[in-house]
Queue: 4 jobs
Job 1
Amino acid sequence: MLLTVEGLATSFGRMRAVDGVSIAVPAGRTLGIVGESGCGKSVLSLSIMRLLAAPGSIIAGGITFDGQDLLAMPQRAMRRLRGRDIAMIFQEPMTSLNPVHTVGAQIIEALRAHDAAADPRATAIAALTRVRIPDAAAAMDKFPHQLSGGMRQRVMIAMAIACIPRLLIADEPTTALDVTVQAQILELLRDLQAETGMGLILITHDLGVIAEMADEVAVMYAGRIVESASAQDLFDDPQHPYTLGLLGSIPRLDLDRARLTAIEGTVPPPHAWPPGCRFAPRCPFAITACDAAPPPLRELSPGHQAACIRAPL
Ligand SMILES: Nc1ncnc2c1ncn2[C@@H]1O[C@H](COP(=O)(O)OP(=O)(O)OP(=O)(O)O)[C@@H](O)[C@H]1O
Ligand SMILES: [Mg+2]
């Protein structure tokens, strides 16, 4: 297994944002992580990268990458690993590109930091070409604000993949982009994976993206994984009411807009988690027993788990 996360808990002060999450990503495969805003998807990915800013800290669990215990790894070694073996595409492209340096300077700097290329300039141009930026050599001299949103996102991806990482964590890589550019970026990630055999964690709130990209899917709700299955099983036979709700909210062209069923209410923030199942207050299947304790993930069929006392539905 390329990456294994077991029982991970991350808190900000006394509030847990990630509460006992386990995932596994084999080389060459894509794990989709889906859930509404505030579920803990970004905190989970920053935890894996060990990029949490104080007061965020990992308080329980383990992270193993290629047999190495990431939580025991010294900062220096972790810095070397980050960017070279594990790369991340952040949710906000503008916050991770430096406005005062050219695109080329930033990619070259990242490559130098990892001593990752004999000829950093040529490698940077190759990375920009790989993400299909037309005239990559000219793009090297551009500043981030001179590029369109779609181009900036490609630059972000080029930076992340310039070192050919073994694991790429892409946090909402296409949210800000229009549909055509989104499709191109997803295709690009798929091609890269086929070329390099990298493992991919794709974080999104868009089940359409999951359907197109993911081999396995983890559905997150209020800091926990509430359902985990192969993409096929998740779409054919969803077992957690939250997943049903998400699926019901996929826009479908064959349905009248008024008939779309979205889940009512919002994800509770960590300080407002109920003592029982955190989805129960929004759940049409909830019964009194659901308020007792957060239900653990249970295997319902091989490889298909759900954290619901009422499953199978
Ligand atoms: N630096 C922080 N300090 C305190 N709480 C935080 C911090 N960062 C995140 N949180 C809380 O942790 C929870 C999970 O946040 P996170 O950003 O991981 O959600 P998300 O699933 O990535 O949402 P989105 O889809 O909007 O990106 C939220 O309740 C958020 O308020
Ligand atoms: Mg996020």
Job 2
Amino acid sequence: MTGNTVFDYLLIGVFVAAVVSALSLIFIDAPYGRHKKGGWGPTINTRLGWVLMESPASLVFLYFFVVGDNNTSIVSLILLVMWQSHYFHRSFIYPFQIKVKPGDRVPVMVIFMGGSYCAINGFLNGSYISTYAEHLDDQWLTDPRFALGIILFCFGYYLNKKSDQILRDLRKDSTEGYKIPYGLGYKYVSMPNYLGEILTWTGFALAAWSLAGVSFVIFTMANLVPRAITNHKWYLETFSDYPKDRKAIFPKIL
Ligand SMILES: NC(=O)c1ccc[n+]([C@@H]2O[C@H](COP(=O)([O-])OP(=O)(O)OC[C@H]3O[C@@H](n4cnc5c(N)ncnc54)[C@H](OP(=O)(O)O)[C@@H]3O)[C@@H](O)[C@H]2O)c1
């Protein structure tokens, strides 16, 4: 806790929202991708939707990082690079890499809810690092938590990006339809891209040693674990030859 009322209440709000999201996703499938259905109000072009939903995490983080006092220490700059290496890619490159049908659309409600969270998340993590954290000085460079966090972040980043690329390669000849993915983390789980995302942000939270980072890990898990379970079930029901020894998201566990 920082003593700043807005920051502290938003942080508590994210933990509460994570619980609400996880409970809701047990009963409702988020209506995008293979679980898309009508009845969710107005829709928006899918690529534009991704840009609008994810870019607040990149831009709001950058703004609050820059206006804070600790924006030139090596540690804070490394954390900035880690954050932006994921979010610049996710906001401005990934939306133009995915294979979508021409004219594909997603509900505005999904984009609004995701974008609102991304803005809050960018504020919490950007301002924590450059305004509220007192430990992110040059001494932190030699702390094992910083080194371990960076290693975990890099592993998660690679797993996430490579797994997403394997999915894109399944649509080399067509912009729609689903096939069974193989290779890398798909040997063990149906959604290694989600596992990579969770490891990425666990590494970031460890490197920054912050509750804001932990709130992001919990929120990510609250969204991705239920969806991974749903997608795993969908794979098993859709493909009779789906590998039976694969788990949903955590190898050998779930
Ligand atoms: N931090 C968070 O809370 C959070 C939340 C959501 C997503 N994400 C990240 O955002 C990225 C995308 O998430 P997502 O939920 O869209 O992932 P996804 O369901 O795995 O889909 C990723 C892309 O691959 C396509 N695809 C999926 N399975 C396929 C298959 N078997 N054959 C061919 N194409 C396939 C999808 O097409 P369709 O769209 O047509 O299904 C989509 O374009 C992931 O890296 C994820 O970790 C993060």
Job 3
Amino acid sequence: MPGLMRNTTMLTTDAIGASDVPHRTMIARRQLLRFFAGSPLLTAGSLGTIASLLTANPQQALAQSYDVLRGSRRTLGSDGIITSAADALDVFEFEPAAKKAAFSQEAPAHWGYLQSGVDGDVTRDANHTAYAKYNIRVRRLIDARKVDTSVKIFGETWASPIFLCPVSSLGAYDPEAGVTVARATAKRDHQMILSTVDNASIVDVNKAHGRPAWFMLYPTDDWNVTKALVQRAEGAGSPAVVLTVDRQGGRNTETLFRERRLDQRDCTGCHTPGFTNEVSRKANFADIDVSKVTNLYGTGMTWEFVDRLRSIVKGKLVLKGIMTGEDAKEALRHGVDGLIVSNHGGRAEESGQATIGVLTEVVDGVGGRIPVLIDGGVRRGTEVLKALALGATAVGIGRPYVWGLASFGEAGVDRVLQILDDEFITIMRQVGAVNTSQITRNCVTSA
Ligand SMILES: Cc1cc2nc3c(=O)[nH]c(=O)nc-3n(C[C@H](O)[C@H](O)[C@H](O)COP(=O)(O)O)c2cc1C
């Protein structure tokens, strides 16, 4: 499956964000000193004082709107779409850029695959719009210039609470698939979860990521394959296996099917008929005998399967796709180590139920005994803060980083993370939280 063509403009210093503190501080200092150096009121002595003030409080000079006004003017392409990752103002600007990349590759079906929810995409959209049901309670007169965005999960520290969700078949959007994503996330020290059915293997992704990613498991209906997948991931050092439990019923990905109508390619060139062919293209199944596998998702899994898996997973076992307090409590009884509140980005069922709307139910269900993560519809740093305030330990993004990947490769993923990190830092400061443990339910209120 060929990767999409994309714009390849490299990141410039204009793209440096608050999370690149040392680099950005240097640029902010340089810009401010240049500004003051032009002032007739300044002597060499006072210039030295300003420089020392900036050194003492480097973050004071960050994220001011006039920094942007002093930079070079950035324009869009004639179609109104960004032409470089550095130019994106928010993650939404990557969406049309990714669509353009897909269509320039004559791959509308790949675009449809990424965007699709199920049925009328109501749940996909609700995941995002439901964040507007919560407002942020800001606090004043707290010095929050220096903030620590890190979170600790299973003894690991991540620099940011934003993690990258497992997305299958990233090879449709980048030739190196998960490996490219791993390089970008490693740079910013975010954690990522690799899908069983990515085009890159967990072994290669873990190498590129520097420290091992979590491995998301579609178990298949052959236990020997399940075991082999777990062994491969754990052998590559992955500290957590994430069992996705929300794809048991089949699905109507209508948006994909609609875009497929526009696709002139012969899709069977890659998507050869038969399950064996479909998975044997995927790197994580290399050298595993998949001849007895008939299904990847709808395997009729029950809690007994979770017990069986628990007995072979040596590291942490996480369930992805939990949406109720009842299932959260059941997971505790079965020795699960963590949960991800998720409806597969609205790609599992058309429930209309947004993940953020059920987060407290799940968090209260486990009563603080295991970490609860969440994904679905997160597009702003403010939404990351809302999710943490409502009890999430970390917050996943799916489509936004793939928009970045499809349009600008590694630089696109990097910029998506940078934007979200910067937005998150800004809102942390405004609520007066200097670290993530200070983000509590007190930080949000119903709209
Ligand atoms: C194209 C695509 C493929 C996905 N593949 C998987 C997968 O293989 N395994 C899985 O557990 N979730 C998968 N998901 C769901 C994501 O892990 C995540 O739950 C979802 O994308 C979060 O919502 P968001 O896209 O609105 O951020 C996929 C999502 C998309 C968009």
Job 4
Amino acid sequence: MKWISTLTVASLIVVSGISVKGHAADLPSLTPETVADYVYAVVESHRAFYTSHVVELLEEQGIAKAGGEWHTEKKTVPLPVQVLNETSQRFSSKFNGLRYQLISLWPINVKNSPRDQVDKSSLEGLNVRPERPISRIIKGDAQTYFRAIYPDVAVSQACVSCHNNHPKSPKRDFQVGDIMGGLVIEFPVNTR
Ligand code: HEC
């Protein structure tokens, strides 16, 4: 009976398209949209975990609060958006060109403004059709990139209150459910 199970395993491998030799080129390829969805899932789950299990816990216990000026203010930890943007800056320079960033048409921090016309028109497009991220192929001089922008929604009153009352916020009438900005996910793609 041993040969049957060997045969079954072998045919399963063939049917599922998994290469026995394991060369990457033989594996079924992923679309850039799927890769961006994977990165999005990881980034957003880390942000949600940090918000509810670090920031809210520290605030509830009166230990620290989250604030934009955490570099200089005592008893202040980074805002979730800063953890997100700053971790990307940390690794994208030494890694392979993958980057992610929360941006907005109404940024508190001007560094989080749209980088170019593509970002700007994608953010505008999200306000009209927020169901799926807006993606584009960006051709640079030496490299071609895939860039997707996912809507960033005001999920709670905390998002709205803090932004509407922040001295540097250019917009003061956000409401729960509004799209406040977008999460950019960009990585190089092979165009052979
Ligand atoms: C306690 C205040 C506070 C809360 C709560 C808050 N934010 Fe922010 N948010 C900020 C600050 C300050 C910045 C700018 C951070 C920096 O220096 O990059 C920012 C940045 C952003 C940006 C990037 C554009 C910009 O304004 O610079 C987006 C998008 C954003 N927040 C969305 C949200 C959403 C969605 C929520 C709720 C899930 C939220 N924020 C909760 C204070 C807050």
